[in-house]
Design a protein that fits this description.
Two copies of one chain form a homodimer.
Chain A lengths: L17 E13 L3 E8 L2 E8 L5 H8 L6 E10 L12 E12 L16 H6 L1 H4 L3 H23 L3 E2 L17 E3 L7 E3 L5 H9 L4 E9 L11 E10 L3 H20 L8 E3 H8 L13 E2 L1 H4 L5 H4 L3 E7 L7 H12 L9 E5 L5 E3 L7 H11 L6 E7 L1 H18 L10 E5 L4 E4 L4 E4 L14 H4 L8 E6 L2 E8 L4 H10 L4 H15 L6 E7 H8 L30 H6 L2 E3 L2
Parallel strand pairs in A: 3-5, 6-9, 11-17
Antiparallel strand pairs in A: 1-2, 1-4, 2-3, 4-5, 7-8, 9-10, 10-22, 12-13, 13-16, 14-15, 14-16, 17-20, 18-19, 20-21, 21-22
Helix pairs in contact in A: 4-6, 14-15
Chain lengths: ~575, ~575
């Protein structure tokens, strides 16, 4: 038996107990006559003591040769600590060691195994197994497990069945790029790894499974933007005989339950907003509503003067930054530089200081008088002391730019409190979006999303105005879930394919098995999928997902620890009937 | 709202309630003046009634046009059923329908959606979404979910953390064939899909995760034997600071818990048997101990006469088949034919009938007298009325043959009761096994399995005799779990690689990251993995796993429903820098 207790377990009430502990050497404080060694395991830290008075000379000397991260087993007696450490759960006691066994030696780790480490991202990833020893990473992984357990318990109690769908499926040209897997037994053919179990969960509904969920890995061979992973985890859900309201109800319940159980945060009803409203008010379909700075559209009160920039713009839109009237010229110039960065892309920014005395000072005083600016303040809700930032241009672009500015300012002002949680449903997404490159409409969600029945007539006349029975769950400015009511009858599905530019033959080749299934009694159904990595990170109070994934890949899709992907044998290629084409 | 109740829910106490139900048409019994329609959902069946007296003519007529598997919604009143059906949970009531909506029509399904279907395996797989509507499949999938939930609850309560390990990893030439995934971003390189998360779970132990588990998909590109799948699910577990006994304790606990919670079967301590004992007694390292027919080795009592076949054999071994002395010559000849099949491969079989009067009648009476045969009976435990079946030959081969015969006979005698559960630990597996083809020793488990410390000295002299700290959990003649204590120090690991014929360079190239990790303080650790598909099937009282997998592949590794694998675009191949080589 390697241990009688864990390293996080012993308390004052255990004093005088003989114990056996095993763990890693965290710290050594060797004063010569006395040597304190702190050992660590998953459960905590315990201080060991070796000293000239009470420890055999030989044992003391051996303890002095220990190094950081050595794996040791000790036997000894729990004694009261002289200088107690109230910050350490075991801080009332220490172990007077009588036996020391080195289970494994360790080289000096390439970075310190402490909460604040000296290791950079790259070295931490290469030695991820050492990084996981650090509390921030270890706790994030344990937190992830806890969230997964709660999700499963909630959904299982609500009658959902977790069904494992296959990983070796079929490539479809729609959507993002698939990872593919050459088949040895079926020469020249390939499996694809699923981008999501979408069609399988719909087939499970056709199969009468009624309520399905799965916490499942999905795969997308995309050029990786920051904080995206080629393999990621989804909470995938589908229900039969439901309308949108049923789905929102169940998954609002799940999210509320997680916030309550895991964060102790009680939230009653989640607010809802249409896609149009979100775009108009926040310039974004996943607004962070933890703070204000709602958009004020100024066209009516800014396009009546000689200022050509505004007069030529499709949209003049502004936010009021609280308390920022005191910004210096230099600070404001920095903001202007920020919105001009290519990543944001604004040409410039007009600003209005709302002085404490009720007067206004703007960068366009040449064109606008105090009455004009007062109307701007009214429209944006600016109060004395605020700074109004105004952007103008093509509506879609300028909304994106102002949204970026709003988020940046919120970050700088500390308004994005990670311990505050503001969920929001965004509903009534457009069914189709126009793609400039291919000059045709694409499904915004996917080709199985149901249009709102009352909008179907618009498909022929104004396809861009057709709304879908589609919804996103947004948490703190992140889309954590999205889904839709699906089409379940072949007529509507055929209509959709037609509007998406598929010939019936193309539709059949790509989605034949699903369309076949629709012939045999498909129930009305719909679902949702949550990005589990992101959900866990946000609940954990973080913006980046990487520390919530045990072995993440870098931005080139590489696992630098195991050095994958890698070359494979010629023999292997031959068996798979492929060759390299570099 | 599509329904107020499910189709399995209504009882006599609901009589007079107005309800809304949705589901599939299961059966129609149309007598003209009255039409009974049974509808089905995941939760059960409910009978609807339409009749001339109480139903509008138009509604009755519409009900008469319904077809099997139509998806309908009805509103109506719960009424008492005249002829109650005690075999149906809702059999006390029926619904007098007032409104009928056809939600979706259905073509006639290609096989009947009944417990006993007229559909063969192939058609059921092609239309798996219809097959899943059948109770035996649906219930198997729901059962699987229930087992998974119980496994997670047990392990989580025992302090295990479920950690998701990556699916896109690195190919290693050891073990079975990998499925590989070409990387677009890393030209000419490939990921591999994991055959198991073995190295990652060991790294998690190095990382201090202490107790890990995962219910996880694994992949092996093997030529498929019956009832094997290219993707399968494992309960994968690993613990640090443990000895073999700790692991057996925890996972015996898990298995006992599942048997208790799910089957209501109480089993105290699981029996244990060494590998050598299992081979000697049952000719098999996964013996089914629900029944006897233990092997009796007859060399000492059968090699003293002139019967050359036995005298030349390395092993003469027999089982006593209970009550089979009454077999006719024809029945015995059939048994002999059975052991001679190429799949079994015996050259012949000697038999002894143990007559009720205490005499013996054998096929080798020419060589052996009653005293000889009495000794055979004693050695095999044969009683009056039994039939002794004797095989002879090379020890390893003949044990396998007799084991096959033992299982076949047990099957025929109905001794393999699927509702009886007989778990067994098989321990002390050999560390190495000799491979005839490559003429060298291979790791029987994997190269990280720890030899028993007391056997290490034998590595140089008698490598085949070195025992491993490796164990299998056997249930009803199936290996449901297997694992080992791992090597955790670099010296032993280097020794092992040396004995397996790896040069240090080869070892580093293939397992460098794990060997590196061992330099930084690896704790003693070990683990186990359960074949989840098999475990669920056995707990569900079945021998085949296919109905416990939602979308299984056939023996060519094809999903015949979605028709995968399939050809992919030239464009896709080009992006991946590969071309076909057929």
């Amino acid at each position: 038996m390697y241990r009688s207790h864990s390293c996080g377990e012993l308390r004052a009430s255990d004093i005088n107990t003989e114990v056996t502990l095993s763990g890693w050497v965290q710290r050594i404080k060797d004063l010569g006559a006395i040597n304190w060694v702190v050992i660590r395991d998953r459960y905590g830290l315990t201080q060991l003591v070796f000293d000239q008075e009470r420890t055999e000379q030989n044992l003391l000397e051996r303890s002095q040769k220990l190094g950081r991260e050595f794996v040791i087993q000790i036997k000894g007696k729990v004694i009261e600590r002289e200088s107690k450490n109230p910050n350490m759960p075991t801080g009332d006691i220490e172990i007077l060691v009588t036996e020391l066994t080195i289970l494994n030696e360790a080289q000096t780790p390439p970075f310190t195994i402490e909460d604040e480490t000296d290791g950079g991202e790259d070295i931490r990833m290469k030695y991820r197994y050492l990084d996981i020893r650090r509390d921030p990473v270890k706790n994030s992984l344990m937190f992830r497990h806890q969230v997964a357990m709660q999700v499963r318990n909630y959904l299982s109690n609500a009658g959902f069945i977790e069904v494992e769908t296959p990983y070796l499926i079929k490539s479809t040209p729609e959507g993002a790029r698939d990872f593919v897997v050459p088949s040895r037994m079926n020469e020249g053919q390939f499996y694809a790894l699923p981008q999501s179990p979408q069609t399988f969960k719909q087939l499970l509904m056709v199969g009468g499974m009624d309520k399905y969920f799965q916490i499942v890995k999905c795969f997308r061979d995309e050029d990786l933007r920051a904080d995206r992973q080629p393999e990621f985890t989804q909470i995938d859900c589908e229900m039969a005989f439901v309308e949108q309201e049923d789905i929102l109800g169940i998954f609002e319940g799940l999210t509320r339950y997680l916030l309550q159980e895991i964060k102790g945060v009680t939230i009653d009803e989640f607010p809802r907003m249409t896609y149009d409203e979100a775009m108009k008010t926040y310039g974004n379909d996943k607004p962070d509503i933890r703070f204000g700075m709602k958009f004020g559209e100024l066209n009516a009160v800014a396009q009546h003067k000689e200022f050509k920039v505004f007069n030529d713009a499709e949209l003049v839109v502004a936010i009021a930054v609280p308390g920022a009237a005191s910004y210096t010229r230099k600070e404001i110039d920095k903001l202007i530089d920020w919105v001009r960065r290519p990543q944001v892309g604004a040409l410039g920014m007009v600003y209005v200081k709302c002085n404490e005395d009720g007067t206004y000072k703007s960068s366009v005083d040449k064109f606008y008088d105090q009455d004009d600016l007062a109307k701007w303040a009214e429209t944006t809700g600016a109060k004395a002391g605020d700074l109004i930032c105004v952007l103008s241009g093509a509506a879609h672009k300028v909304r994106g730019q102002l949204s970026a500015l709003r988020m940046e300012i919120a970050e700088r002002l500390g308004l994005r409190n990670p311990q505050e949680f503001a969920p929001l449903w965004v509903v009534d997404f457009p069914l189709l979006e126009w793609d400039e490159d291919t000059e045709r409409y694409h499904a915004m969600h996917h080709p199985f999303t149901s249009p709102k029945p009352e909008d179907i007539a618009l498909l022929d006349t104004e396809p861009g105005k057709v709304r879908a029975n589609a919804y996103d769950l947004v948490l703190n400015g992140n889309e954590i879930g999205g889904g839709s009511i699906r089409i379940h009858d072949k007529e509507t599905q055929a209509l959709m394919f037609d509007h998406l530019g598929f010939t019936p033959e193309e539709a059949k080749a790509q989605f034949g098995f699903l369309m076949d299934a629709f012939e045999y009694g498909a129930p009305p159904h719909g679902g949702i999928a949550f990005g589990f990595d992101r959900l866990v990170a946000i609940l954990g109070g973080q913006e980046t997902i990487r520390d919530f994934i045990a072995f993440p890949k870098n931005n080139s899709g590489r696992d630098v620890m195991i050095d994958a992907p890698a070359d494979i044998d010629k023999e292997q290629l031959k068996e798979l009937n492929i060759q390299l084409d570099l």
